[in-house]
Design a protein that fits this description.
Strand content: under 5%
Distance between the termini: 23 Å
CATH superfamily: ACP-like
Number of strands: 0
CATH class: Mainly Alpha
Low-confidence stretches: none
Shape: globular
CATH topology: Non-ribosomal Peptide Synthetase Peptidyl Carrier Protein, Chain A
Largest sheet: none
Radius of gyration: 12 Å
Order of helices and strands: HHHH
Helix content: 40-55%
Number of helices: 4
CATH architecture: Orthogonal Bundle
Length: about 70
């Protein structure tokens, strides 16, 4: 997440409720890059529906955990 954050204070205070766009100031293009990084790192595929739900830290972690559990 850190390479894409444009709000250091938001990053320093990040919680599971942190919103990628509003709190961390990650733009939509970088969110796509973040998702691609997650797919590569965890060797998972994130479908379009899941991508659209990845708006904050908590939902992203839940999606990753779900994908890993069925792997």
């Amino acid at each position: 997440v850190k390479p894409y954050v444009n709000n250091q204070e938001g990053f320093d205070n990040m919680s599971e409720n942190s919103d990628f766009i509003n709190d961390l100031k990650i733009n939509s293009a970088n969110i796509v890059d973040l998702i691609l990084d997650v797919e590569d790192y965890f060797d998972i595929v994130i479908d379009q529906e899941s991508m659209e739900r990845m708006i904050d830290v908590k939902s992203t972690l839940q999606i990753i955990e779900t994908k890993l559990s069925v792997k």
